[in-house]
Each structure stands twice: as structure tokens, then as C-alpha cells.
């Protein structure tokens, strides 16, 4: 037999809580000493207290727990548990809504204290990728102004929203993402567009830059790579050198270089395309090809 103090130490619950359970009839002592009026509890009641603590963890009130402990009908017990699961699911949904509303308030506060609006239009046919991109953007203070699952609606949304930045996938169902870039640039020559695609071959990247893209991120990407590309694009008016793009596009090495390039190669390629008066004989040009595995001079 255990005193209430001993029981408190065993179950790691305060003696006051145990006394309260006693008062409301949730935990009756096994024996009360007539002389000392000490209340004693049996070893079996330890399991009962643990059950009470477990039910409380699930959010049941003490009155509901009393009913649960007294219940001997398995069907009724199952119904009570299912009812609590439904209530917890509703609470979870409400909590998720509350969290999203608070995030929105934070974003509004950030926009109110920031001199720069950072709105982004996402054009990607994969719902999961749009969700991932939106989460990344909003955690970093961007505003996902709109989403489009195809090129036509993406171009229309750009005309409507005029976002600061656009993320475009190449493999869209109705038109190539590079064509989407061209159409957006026709609407707004100053549009800042980041291509984000698994088609990470040099020829594809060059075609994207020639169409008017400001940056290129190869999927799958690291979050930091995408954020750096967006921030760089947002802060710079990017215009790649037409002669350098032409020299690269005309190089016969592209015919044998069909593999997807690394983020480091993408960075080197964009840096090279920023340079002016680059020819196939320029040291920087030859160094670029050498760095990605072509040691011979230009073909």
C-alpha cells in the first residue's frame, strides 16, 4: 500500500492533483486508516493514475475521464474515442488556419515596414512543385502573388499582376517555358524571370537567356541556390551579351555535351555571358570549356 506522498513520487504527479482526483471521485483510496485518517492506495491504482494522465494528454476533461474509466462497453468506448479523434482533427484544421492567418499578418507587417515589395509569379505545371516554391518564398518574405499551371495562363497572370519576379518551368503542357519567357518579355521588356527546370543542359540555358530569362536554376535545387538567384535577379537589371551567347550557341562542343550541368557550371556560364566582346578565342571562353572537361581549343 502507498500513501499519497509515495504515490506522487511514483507517478510523478503532485500530491495536490492526486487529492483533487480523490475529491471529485476519480481516484478513491483503497483504504483509510480510521485512527490516523491516512489514505492508502494499492499498486493496482498506479495503473489507474497512469491511465488518467494518458487520457488527459489526449485532451479529455476529468468528467469525461471518469466516464471512460467506468465504461465497460467496448462499443461505447470506441464511440467516445472516435468522437475525440474527430474533435482533435477539427482542432488541428483550425490551428493550421490560425497559423496561416498569423503568417499572413507577419507578411503584411513585413511589407509595411519594407521599402521593397517582393512579389513572385510561379509558372509550373506540377502542383507539388508550386507548393514547394510557394513555401520557400513565403518563409523568406516573398509574396507568392499568383500561380499558373500552363504557359497561357501564366502570361495572362503576368499581365494582370505585374509581379517583381517570375519563376518559370520549361516543361509546360501547352507551350515551352522558353516561349513563355518571350511572350512575357514582349509584354514587359523589364520583366525579371528565373528559369527553374530539370532541363539543365547548356544549350537549354543559352536558349532561355536569349529569350530574355535573367537567371537559371537547375532542378532539383538547393533552397539557397534558388533564393540567391531570385535576390540577384531582383537587384540587377540583367542583360547578357548577344555576341557571347552567339559564340557559345555556335560551338560544336554543345553537340557532345548533352548532360545536365552542375550549379557551379551554371554560375560560370552566366558569368561568362555577362562579359562583353567575348569570342571563341578569348581566354575566358577557353577557360570555361576547359573547366567543364574540354581541354582542346575551340572547334
N- to C-terminal separation?
Answer: 93 Å
- State the low-pLDDT regions, or none: 295-299
Structural class: alpha/beta
| Strand order in the largest sheet | 5-4-6-7-8
Number of domains: 3
Largest sheet: 5 strands, parallel
Task: Give a count of the beta strands, DSSP E runs of length 2 or more.
Answer: 8
Walkthrough of the structure:
The chain is 56% helix and 10% strand. The N and C termini lie far apart (93 Å). The chain has three domains: 2-70, Multidrug-efflux Transporter Regulator, Chain: A, Domain 2, CATH 1.10.1660.10; 74-115; 116-291, Response regulator (Rossmann fold), CATH 3.40.50.2300. Mean pLDDT is 84; it is low at 295-299. It is elongated and about 105 Å long. With 299 residues, the chain is an alpha/beta fold. β7, α9 (202-211) and β8 (215-218) form a beta-alpha-beta unit. It has helices at 4-11, 15-23, 44-57, 62-70, 74-113, 127-139, 151-161, 177-187, 202-211, 223-235, 242-250, 263-274, 283-291, and strands at 2-3, 31-32, 39-41, 119-123, 143-148, 165-168, 193-197, 215-218. A five-stranded parallel β-sheet has the order 5-4-6-7-8, sandwiched between helices. It has a three-stranded antiparallel β-sheet with strand order 1-3-2.
Topology record:
Blueprint: E1 2-3, H1 4-11, H2 15-23, E2 31-32, E3 39-41, H3 44-57, H4 62-70, H5 74-113, E4 119-123, H6 127-139, E5 143-148, H7 151-161, E6 165-168, H8 177-187, E7 193-197, H9 202-211, E8 215-218, H10 223-235, H11 242-250, H12 263-274, H13 283-291
Parallel strand pairs: 4-5, 4-6, 6-7, 7-8
Antiparallel strand pairs: 1-3, 2-3
Helix pairs in contact: 7-8, 9-11
Amino acid at each position: 500500500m502507498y500513501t499519497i506522498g509515495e504515490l506522487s513520487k511514483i507517478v510523478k504527479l503532485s500530491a495536490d492533483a492526486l487529492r483533487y482526483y480523490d475529491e471529485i471521485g476519480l481516484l478513491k483510496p483503497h483504504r483509510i486508516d480510521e485512527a490516523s485518517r491516512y489514505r492508502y492506495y494499492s499498486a493496482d491504482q498506479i495503473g489507474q493514475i497512469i491511465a488518467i494522465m494518458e487520457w488527459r494528454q489526449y485532451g479529455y476533461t476529468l468528467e469525461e475521464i471518469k466516464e471512460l474509466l467506468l465504461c465497460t462497453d467496448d462499443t461505447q468506448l470506441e464511440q467516445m474515442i472516435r468522437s475525440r479523434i474527430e474533435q482533435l482533427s477539427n482542432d488541428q484544421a483550425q490551428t493550421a488556419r490560425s497559423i496561416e492567418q498569423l503568417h499572413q499578418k507577419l507578411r503584411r507587417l513585413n511589407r509595411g515596414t519594407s521599402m521593397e515589395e517582393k512579389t513572385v509569379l510561379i509558372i509550373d505545371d506540377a502542383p507539388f512543385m508550386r507548393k514547394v516554391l510557394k513555401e520557400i518564398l513565403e518563409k523568406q518574405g516573398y509574396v507568392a502573388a499568383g500561380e499558373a499551371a500552363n504557359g497561357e495562363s501564366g502570361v495572362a497572370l503576368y499581365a494582370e499582376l505585374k509581379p517583381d519576379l517570375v519563376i518559370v518551368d520549361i516543361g509546360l503542357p501547352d507551350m515551352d517555358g522558353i516561349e513563355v519567357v518571350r511572350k512575357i518579355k514582349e509584354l514587359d521588356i523589364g520583366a525579371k524571370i528565373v528559369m527553374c527546370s530539370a532541363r539543365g543542359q547548356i544549350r537549354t540555358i543559352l536558349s532561355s537567356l536569349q529569350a530574355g530569362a535573367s537567371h537559371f536554376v537547375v532542378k532539383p535545387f538547393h533552397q539557397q541556390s534558388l533564393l540567391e538567384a531570385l535576390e540577384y535577379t531582383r537587384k540587377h537589371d540583367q542583360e547578357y551579351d548577344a555576341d557571347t551567347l552567339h559564340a557559345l550557341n555556335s560551338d560544336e562542343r554543345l553537340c557532345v555535351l548533352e548532360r545536365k550541368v552542375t550549379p557551379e557550371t551554371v554560375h560560370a556560364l552566366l558569368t561568362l555571358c555577362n562579359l562583353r566582346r567575348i569570342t571563341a578565342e578569348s581566354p575566358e571562353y577557353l577557360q570555361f570549356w576547359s573547366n567543364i572537361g574540354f581541354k582542346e581549343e575551340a572547334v
